[in-house]
Design a protein that fits this description.
The chain is mainly beta. The protein folds into 2 domains: about 30 residues; about 150 residues, Sandwich (Immunoglobulin-like). Helix content is about 15%, strand content about 40%. It contains 4 helices and 12 strands. Strands 1, 2, 3, 4, 6, 7, 8, 10, 11 and 12 form a 10-stranded mixed sheet that branches. A hairpin with an 8-residue loop joins strand 11 and strand 12. The N and C termini lie far apart (about 115 Å). The N terminus is likely disordered. Keywords: Membrane, Transmembrane, Transmembrane helix.
């Protein structure tokens, strides 16, 4: 009895079989794994899966309270005042101390590394600021923020040679880390800006020098 399978036996074996001396070609396992990883990363990136991991600057509405580490802050309005040939930008908000010790705004680079603003025209980033606590028309009377109290009024002050008329000013706040800045690890501790930041577009009122 003959079948189709039997008929295939008429074909010479060396017509379909690879010679024994020809090496079989296989992709290395590491190359296959690398290709799969690249496809996975590419697909995740296209789907927006890395937005949280790579977006370190968060734009928030004014009035939002953010935790900087040593203290929490929120800002809601600003005043640009021209006086004696220079401009001062006052940013008003509320601050609270998250530590167990009094915070001094002039110590440990708290303000220099924690806050910044941007010139509306030149885009120059300014981080040289002063921070005051307590109520006041422009600035409070204290540079010390005590722990264990509800949020108190606070004011950031930036100085400019010139400041154009604008409706909003960009204010940056950094998440802080308590680090040793000495190269030899001697314990010269300061507040250093971390990798997470927040930005607020704060409404500003312009006050020229001749305004009452």
């Amino acid at each position: 009895m003959s079948t189709e399978a039997d008929g295939a036996g008429d074909v010479p074996a060396d017509a379909v079989a690879e010679p024994d001396d020809v090496p079989r070609r296989h992709l290395p396992a590491w190359l296959i794994a690398l290709a799969c990883a690249l496809l996975l990363v590419g697909g995740t990136w296209l789907a927006g899966g890395f937005d949280v991991a790579t977006s370190r600057l968060f734009r928030l509405p004014v009035g939002t309270q953010v935790n900087m580490g040593p203290m929490s802050v929120s800002f809601d309005r600003a005043l640009a005042r021209h006086s004696f040939g220079n401009w001062s930008l006052y940013v008003f908000g509320h601050c609270s101390n998250n530590t167990d010790e009094p915070l001094r705004s002039s110590a440990d680079r708290l303000v220099a590394n924690g806050f910044s603003t941007r010139h509306p025209v030149s885009g120059l980033v300014v981080s040289d600021a002063s921070l005051f606590f307590g109520p006041g028309e422009t600035i409070g009377r204290s540079s010390v923020l005590n722990p264990g109290t509800p949020p108190v009024p606070c004011q950031l002050v930036f100085d400019f040679d010139d400041f154009p008329a604008t409706n909003f000013v960009s204010v940056g706040v950094s998440r802080m880390e308590w680090v040793d800045r000495s190269p030899t690890g001697e314990g010269d501790m300061v507040w250093s800006a971390g990798r997470v930041g927040y930005r607020f577009e704060v409404p500003v009122v312009m006050q020229p020098e001749d305004a009452p």
